[in-house]
Design brief:
TIM Barrel, 8-stranded parallel barrel, alpha/beta, 2 domains, 12 strands, globular, 342 residues, 15% strand
Length: 342
């Protein structure tokens, strides 16, 4: 979860829009998109001819001049072993102080790599006059990264999230099909990313969906594409993913909906939490729905309401009071551990 505006605003991204770093028009499109988070990509989306100074110049200009609204603003450098990595990071940190919030690190496999980036950023921030601290999200894209995911997640206090990188992960284990039945084919890997992220108090992001509606796509085919995109994300959300990468603004509306609690879910959770506390806690049944309630199920409802706070559907004061009541009973704060800060 990102802490923004000097700790006064918190964002658990539902949608992270990736776009080519070297094209200014794409920055403008991203700024106008209905997403929570934008990521200028120096890596896979940037052709070799534009790597290095050409792409860095565009992103520095954009980050200093583009109004991205309340979005989380990030970039993905070339990978840590690339000849471009150090230049990408150094140029952006020095060229756009306090103008972006985080860096998305690709191809990370070891916690020591996170420690290196942490130290690098500390030095660059100090010399460049940053007043904020750059956050890190890491792509889990290989079997070794997956095995080390928890150690990567806790390697720095800059860490805010893990992202499942489907395409590279599939290639590394020899799987060709990455669209059809991906939640079944990659269930173990996706769930492992979720578990590692949540154990470290980070958010977990699902991978991109590669099929888009084009100008010449028939209405029938477009409906199928949208339904498949929704189904992928509904399944990922049920695994515990907090949001998803998107590769076009057209995917934002469905993704934002899937990863947001509905009004009905929020209302039911508030009623059940209120009933639970009015009865003194323990183990009991909510008479409206016959749902079993205890501190474990209440903990899950509090996490849902934290997303409701972010979307403006739940007051911060209500959530703070509900968290305090649960913490008084258990001595354990779900919000603190999962960094759903309110």
């Amino acid at each position: 979860m990102y802490s923004l505006d000097h700790g006064t605003r918190f964002v658990i991204p539902r949608t992270e829009l990736t776009f080519p770093a070297h094209v200014m028009r794409m920055h403008n499109n991203a700024a106008a998109a209905a997403v929570d988070h934008v990521m200028a990509d120096f890596e896979d989306a940037c052709p070799p001819d534009f790597k290095g100074e050409p792409s860095r110049t565009v992103v520095i200009e954009s980050f200093n001049t583009t109004n991205f609204g309340g979005k989380v603003v990030t970039f993905r450098p070339n990978n840590i072993h690339s000849q471009y990595f150090l230049g990408d990071v150094t140029s952006l940190v020095q060229g756009a102080p306090d103008k972006f919030h985080g860096i998305i690190l690709p191809k990370i496999e070891l916690p020591e790599e996170i420690a290196y980036v942490d130290n690098l950023l500390t030095a660059l921030e100090r010399e460049s006059g940053w007043t904020t601290k750059i956050s890190l999200e890491v792509l889990i894209e290989s079997p070794l990264a997956l095995v080390n995911a928890y150690q990567i997640a806790i390697a720095s206090d800059r860490m805010v999230g893990l992202i499942f990188g489907l395409a590279d992960f599939a290639a590394s284990i020899g799987v060709r099909e990455v669209v059809q039945d991906q939640n079944q084919s990659f269930h173990y890997a996706k769930q492992a990313v979720v578990v590692s992220a949540k154990a470290a108090g980070l958010h977990a992001m699902d991978n991109v969906f590669f099929t888009l509606v084009r100008g010449d796509t028939s209405e029938e085919e477009a409906g199928t594409i949208r339904n498949n995109f929704r189904a992928k994300n509904v399944g990922a959300a049920r695994m515990g993913m907090d949001g998803t990468w998107v590769i076009h603004p057209q995917q934002a509306e469905i993704a934002n909906e899937v990863y947001s609690p509905t009004d009905a879910e929020i209302d039911e959770d508030i009623r059940s939490i209120d009933y639970y506390h009015s009865q003194g806690g323990g183990a009991l049944v909510f008479p409206e729905t016959n749902e079993f309630l205890d501190e474990a199920t209440i903990k899950g409802k509090l996490a849902t309401l934290a997303k409701g706070v972010q979307s403006g559907k739940v007051s911060k004061e209500y959530l703070a009071d509900a968290v305090a009541k649960s913490e008084a009973v258990t001595g354990f704060s779900n919000i603190d551990v999962q960094k759903r800060t309110i």
